Amino acid sequence: MVAAESYEGQVDITGRVTMARIDEPRLALVTAGGQRVEAPFPPEREELVLTALRDHSRVQLRVQGWGRLAPDGQVESIESVQQLELAVPEPDSHVDHGALWEQIDALVASLPPEVVAQLPEDSAEQLDHYIYGTRKR
Predict the structure, then answer these.
(1) Gap between the Cα atoms of 66 and 9, Å rounded
(2) Could you say which DSSP state residue 119 is in?
(3) How much is the pLDDT for 119?
(4) Where do the H-state alpha helices sit in the chain?
(5) The domain containing residue 72 runs over which residues?
(6) What is residue 28's three-state secondary structure?
(7) Are residues 103 and 77 in the same domain?
C-alpha cells in the first residue's frame, strides 16, 4: 500500500493573525482548530494585515491562494496569495442564563433598599417574559 503524498492546490483558510513581518512581507495565522500557517502577502495589503494583527482578538483574516496541502486536505503552507479579506466571526448565540441572573442579582444588590422595595414581585417566569420577550412554557 502506497501512502498518499501532499499536493499543490487552491487554499482558502481563515484564522487570527498572530504575526506580521513587513520587511519581507509574511504573516502567520492560527485557525480555530489551532493550526498555524504562514503566508506571504503583497506589500500593498500591509495595512489590512496590520489591522488584522492589531484586532486579532475580534477579527480574522481569510486567505485565498495557492499552496501545499496534506493528503487529508489540510493546508500545510501557502506559497502565493490571491485574496485577503477581514472576516468577523459570527457572535456566539449561546446565552448563559446563569451568568445573566448573577448579573441581575448583583445589580439588585447594589440598589438602595427603597428602590428594591418598588420593584415588582413577579415570578421568574414573568421576569423571563420581560427580559426575553416570551414566556417559557
Answers:
(1) 6
(2) S
(3) 72
(4) 46-54, 97-110, 113-116, 124-132
(5) 7-87
(6) strand
(7) no
Tell whether 113 and 55 lie within a shared domain: no
Residue 129 has pLDDT above 80, yes or no: no
pTM of this structure: 0.62
Which residue is associated with the grid cell 421576569?
127
Q: Give the whole-angstrom CA distance, residue 88 versus residue 110.
A: 36
Q: Which amino acid is at 1?
A: M
**Least confident segment among 71-75, 86-90, 101-105, 125-129:** 125-129
For the stretch 66-86, pLDDT in tens is: 999 999 889 999 999 999 999
Element (H, E) at 68: strand 60-69
Q: Is residue 137 part of a domain?
A: no
Query: Domain for residue 66, yes or no?
Result: yes
